[in-house]
Design goal:
Shape: elongated
Largest sheet: 3 strands, mixed
Strand order of the largest sheet: 1-3-2
Number of strands: 7
């Protein structure tokens, strides 16, 4: 499969050219065999041919054999926000909140209440922060924790101590 990549160049700012005698209207077009020098060639050439499929590098994921599913992910490209970047525990793609233990967390999970890396000091238990989601109750708990933190800092500062 060959793909053509062509960029339109803007020569509107150049001076009018004097007509030159050309021997042929044909010009050579570069054919790129692999992706190793793709970025470099894109900078230099206006038009070139790819002799490979640029989408070949898709990372294969688990192919679902579940016939009940209407949609199955068979490949992905790039990063996924709720898996590859910091996120609240209830948004974790690695440990879906409704299907796994709330106390489970990946290396990018953080506590919604404390706004620190999970697991926090109050992570586990029946009223643990691992169960908090982004709703009104969760936001109230977050604000209360923030007020408590400010109060603790004021008490420590009044006694000449620091965290």
């Amino acid at each position: 499969m060959k793909s053509s990549i062509c960029k339109k160049s803007d020569n509107s700012k150049t001076k009018p050219s004097v007509k030159k005698k050309q021997s042929t209207p044909l010009r050579s077009i570069l054919c790129l065999k692999n992706r190793a020098s793709l970025k470099e060639i894109e900078k230099k050439e206006d038009c070139f041919i790819l002799d490979f499929n640029p989408d070949e590098s898709l990372r294969k994921t688990h192919v679902s054999n579940n016939n009940d599913a209407e949609i199955s992910v068979v490949a992905e490209k790039g990063q996924v926000a709720c898996r590859d970047f910091p996120h609240s525990r209830h948004n974790c793609a690695k440990y879906p909140f409704n299907k796994t233990s709330h106390e489970s967390c990946c290396r990018f999970c953080y506590c919604f209440v404390c706004d620190t890396a999970a697991p926090c000091v109050m992570w586990t238990g029946s009223n643990g922060h691992c169960h908090v989601v982004d709703n009104e109750a969760g936001k109230l708990q977050r604000r209360a924790a923030k007020r408590l933190q400010i109060l603790m800092q004021a008490v420590l500062k009044a006694n000449g101590l620091s965290i």
